[in-house]
Design the sequence.
């Protein structure tokens, strides 16, 4: 137990098993915060932690993390995660206290550094803004500040003519070229379909020097835990573009992997697939299609940035914080 004087002495951290964590933390806002995802990937950390931040007998925050070497990482094998609120009354003071007792807990556990990778603020702006403020004031280093792109489905799910007026000339030309080429979008239904989409994505990534890190087997295991979709763009029956997406929550869908076969880049199949997914998820009531970062260690991939901007994506920031702990 970690305590502080005054109000802080009422607070402590309780380490629990994944089943108890799931019961105590009702927030289902982000799939990557979930114990079932963490358990699937626990071999990527030396030790996994499920922590509940308590004020007397009241659970206030939940956090999943993993120790990699002497560093506590949130996440240790995901694009992002963050400490979630268990009750709605998450004052800034309580976030500050939670961070202080978390640092003390880590020091007592022999942890020498802490790393957080947060999602873009639009995932939970009220709570994430509080954590960003707390980390800044506690002298955490901004290790990376990545540019994340997302499609506003409420704005863009309109007629094709109106959508065309919202995107750049390059985006309009790409969409027209794809339509003239007679491309079609197919929704994956079978494991063979998913394998085809994965293989296209892998070919596209390898051609650019960035192979897909997740194996097909792990992708299939992960998709058993989260609502998902995959699409293939075809030309005369040949798959040329693939995309795998997770339905993160009832507001946000995230494109996990996307790729175009290098032999078919000129057909602009990704432009067609972008328009198709805007309509598909917009009509289902989703608000945001997260297209992920277009930076590597904060450095922009200008080709990727330019494409996402051309089809209507908007920029936001994705923070990575780190701190060396001192006794």
Sequence:
């Amino acid at each position: 137990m970690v305590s502080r004087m005054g109000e802080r002495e009422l607070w402590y951290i309780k380490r629990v098993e994944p089943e108890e964590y799931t019961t105590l933390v009702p927030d289902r806002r982000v799939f990557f915060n979930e114990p079932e995802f963490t358990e699937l990937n626990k071999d990527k950390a030396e030790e996994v932690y499920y922590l509940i931040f308590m004020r007397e007998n009241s659970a206030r925050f939940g956090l999943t993390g993993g120790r990699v070497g002497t560093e506590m990482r949130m996440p240790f094998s995901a694009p992002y995660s963050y400490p979630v609120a268990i009750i709605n009354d998450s004052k800034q003071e309580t976030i500050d206290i939670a961070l202080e007792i978390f640092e003390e807990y880590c020091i007592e556990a022999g942890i020498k550094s802490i790393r957080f990778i947060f999602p873009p603020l639009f995932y939970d702006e009220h709570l994430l803004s509080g954590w960003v403020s707390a980390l800044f004031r506690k002298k955490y280093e901004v290790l990376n500040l990545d540019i994340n792109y997302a499609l506003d489905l409420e704005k863009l799910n309109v007629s094709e003519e109106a959508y065309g007026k919202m995107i750049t000339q390059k985006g309009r030309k790409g969409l027209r070229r794809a339509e003239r080429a007679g491309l079609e979008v197919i929704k994956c239904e079978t494991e063979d379909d998913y394998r085809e989409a994965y293989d296209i994505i892998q070919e596209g990534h390898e051609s650019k020097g960035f192979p897909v890190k997740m194996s097909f087997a792990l992708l299939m295991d992960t998709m058993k835990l989260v609502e998902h979709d995959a699409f293939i763009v075809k030309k005369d029956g040949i798959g040329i573009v693939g995309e795998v997406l997770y339905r993160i929550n009832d507001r946000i869908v995230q494109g996990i992997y996307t790729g175009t076969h290098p032999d078919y880049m000129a057909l602009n199949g990704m432009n067609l697939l972008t328009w198709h997914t805007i309509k598909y998820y917009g009509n289902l009531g989703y608000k945001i299609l997260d297209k992920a970062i277009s930076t590597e260690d904060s450095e922009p991939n200008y080709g990727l940035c330019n494409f996402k901007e051309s089809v209507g994506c908007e920029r936001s920031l994705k923070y990575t914080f780190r701190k060396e702990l001192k006794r």
In short: The first strand starts at residue 11 and ends at 15. The domain at 6-139 is CATH 3.40.630.30 (Aminopeptidase).
